[in-house]
Amino acid sequence: MLIVRKIQEMQSLANDFRKEKKIGFVPTMGFLHEGHLSLVRRSKEMADLTVVSIFVNPIQFGPNEDFERYPRDFERDRTLLEKENVDVLFYPQIEEMYPEGYRTYVKVTEIEDYLCGRTRKGHFQGVATVVAKLFNIVKPHFAFFGEKDYQQLKIIERMVKDLNMDVTIVACPTVREEDGLAMSSRNSYLSPDERRKALNIYGALKRVQSLFMEGEKNVAKLVEEARRFLASVEGLEIEYISIVDCETLKDLEFVEESGLLAIACWIGKTRLIDNIVLRRDKR
Ligand code: AMP
After folding, report:
1. How far apart are CA 147 and CA 276, in angstroms?
2. Which of 22, 86, 114, 283 gives 20 to 30 Å between its CA and that of 52?
């Protein structure tokens, strides 16, 4: 596996690769888990050559968020990626990504204002900006994103469409622990007791899903059920429970064919998100 730190080196490698190979790209912030590796495996299936980036992007963290303490373990990540036969690990430096005088940002309007955008001001602008930069550096044919971060996925899809970027976005399903907890680098913050509490997020998603499958369409009632479910978990604070249109992410009043049920909550100092698509025609 080649490890590339310099932007120009990555760009000239990408130019050479592109002449005869399809490049698959998996952008990450590292501290890798099976969720990330599922994206890597998808890329290995679809592309001739896979590039993974590890970059904890400072501009997508708010001033009081966890940029400093975000988990990092480069050697462990490198070993995991070598085992997956990744071709290139791109590991840029902050100073080269955002040098003195950096002024350009990508803002995907409206979709970024809902769900997590209500509390994480500027977060998605940071995400869209770094992904646009990484696309210009890695020049991929395919880029892989997890449905775990559903709003991020929709924002990237929109950006690619609106800015005519020549890359295909591939959405990959959420990978969960055996008991259902969505994998996340931030799960490493949880104590064993908090980890047990966190599992209730998936419990609430499943509870609402079964109510929906029984025929309930009313969003207020579905959301109320999730609220009741989570209210009994001591130390869990709900940030939002929303059911929104799967494409526009606008609030729904009734779920007809489909809707996205998304939850964000705090367990102690850890913010966790999860979601599930409610779909009428699914078993
Ligand atoms: P992150 O390192 O958290 O920025 O995530 C990098 C990529 O991995 C994003 O596209 C995430 O949506 C995706 N990802 C993170 N967790 C999961 C998961 N549990 N299942 C599938 N994809 C995931």
Report:
1. 9
2. 114
Question: pTM of the entire structure?
Answer: 0.98
3-state secondary structure of 99: coil
Verify whether ligand 1 is closer than 6 Å to residue 36 (CB atom).
yes
Residue 33's Cβ-count burial label (10 Å; 0-12, 13-18, 19+) is middle
Give the position, in ligand 1's atom list, of the atom nearest the Cα of 174.
20
39 lines ligand 1 (CB under 6 A): yes
Report d(CA 266, CA 246) in Å as an integer: 24
Phi and psi, residue 245, nearest 5° = -65, 135
- The domain made up of 2-172 is a member of CATH 3.40.50.620: yes
Residue with CA nearest ligand 1 atom 14: 146
Is 36 marked active-site?
A: yes
Place of tokens 């955008």: 117
- Per residue in 196-224, pLDDT (tens digit) is 999 999 999 999 999 999 999 999 999 99
As a whole number of angstroms, the distance between CA 249 and CA 67 comes to 27
**Numbered ranges of CATH 3.40.50.620 in the chain:** 2-172
The Å distance, Cα 35 to ligand 1 centre, comes to 6
Residues 53-99 have pLDDT tens digits of 999 999 999 999 999 999 999 999 999 999 999 999 999 999 999 99
Place of tokens 């008991």: 179
Which residue, judged by its Cα, is nearest atom 6 of ligand 1? Answer: 28
What confidence category does residue 15 fall into, taking pLDDT thresholds of 50, 70 and 90?
A: very high
| 155 Rama class: left (phi>0) / alpha (psi -120 to 50) / beta | alpha
